[in-house]
TrEMBL record:
It comes from Simplicispira suum. The lineage of its organism: Bacteria, Pseudomonadati, Pseudomonadota, Betaproteobacteria, Burkholderiales. Belongs to the 3-oxoacid CoA-transferase subunit A family. Transmembrane segments: none annotated. InterPro entries: 3-oxoacid_CoA-transf_A, CoA_trans_fam_I, CoA_transf_BS, NagB/RpiA_transferase-like. SMART domains: CoA_trans (SM00882). It holds the Pfam family CoA_trans. This is Succinyl-CoA--3-ketoacid-CoA transferase. Keywords: Transferase. One of its GO terms (molecular function) is CoA-transferase activity.
Length: 245
């Protein structure tokens, strides 16, 4: 089966709608489905609840959807790089469900595995556990967390065959596999598409059974969230000598 669509816009057509629960893969700006996010913005759908490790940055990634006010709620573990997110949240314009990062990953994994809930020690005794069931196992208190099953998952992978078997590249293999497995409908953006059967089975990170639609984006921008440059040893030594003089 050929699951390839001609564009991100076509891949989203008939799938995304107002008020949906979406999962978006990526960690910071690493491994985010850039073209699918742009197409989602252009679609004009609104009142979205978005599950994602964070909310991108101002003007890029999910930050674009915040600027156009298409997101009403974020389920995230870190949101510190986005000033517009901060403004909307503090103004009461955006709902936020803070979730510890490991718990967020397990919520998606459990959702994809058909597990409705699980118990974890993470968050016990904090605001994370407020309003949730607590239970004792072997003398330790655990909090029950419900799994997440998004209506649509938007995912980034490095390579796909036409049947949707996926390979992820390096650290872009973060929340993407879990998001793909959890989504009722999974749309994947990839840099390279090969014929079905061209990939070595042992190199397939996620089987095509989880993937419904594929979009080819051969030249993503791949922004760096923060760049830190270390001074060359000679330059550092010269500065130290000058300071000592």
């Amino acid at each position: 089966m050929n699951k390839v669509f001609a564009s991100a816009t076509e891949a989203l057509a008939g799938v995304v709608a107002d008020g949906q629960l979406l999962a978006v893969g990526g960690f910071g700006l690493c491994g985010i489905p850039e073209a699918l996010i742009e197409a989602l913005q252009a679609s004009g759908v609104k009142d979205l609840t978005v599950i994602s490790n964070n909310a991108g940055v101002d003007g890029f990634g999910l930050g674009k959807l915040l600027e156009t006010r298409q997101i009403k709620k974020m389920i995230s573990s870190y949101v510190g790089e986005n000033k517009e997110f901060e403004r909307q949240f503090l103004a009461g314009e955006l709902e936020l469900e803070f979730t510890p990062q490991g718990t967020l990953a397990e919520k998606l994994r459990a959702g994809g595995a058909g597990i409705p809930a699980f118990f974890t020690k993470t968050g016990v005794g904090t605001m994370v556990a407020e309003g949730k069931e607590l239970r004792e196992f072997d003398g330790e208190t655990y909090v029950m967390e419900r799994s997440l099953v998004p209506d649509v998952a938007l995912v980034k992978a490095h390579r796909a065959d036409k049947s949707g078997n996926l390979q992820f590249r390096l650290t872009a293999r973060n929340f993407n596999p879990a998001a793909a497995m959890a989504g009722k409908v999974c749309i994947v953006e990839v840099e390279e598409i090969v014929e079905t059967g061209a990939m070595v089975p042992d190199e397939v990170h996620l089987p095509g059974i989880y993937v419904h639609r594929i979009v080819h984006n051969p030249n993503p921008e791949k922004r760096i969230e923060k760049r830190t440059i270390t001074e060359a040893p000679r330059e550092r030594a010269a500065q130290t000598e000058k300071a000592g003089a």
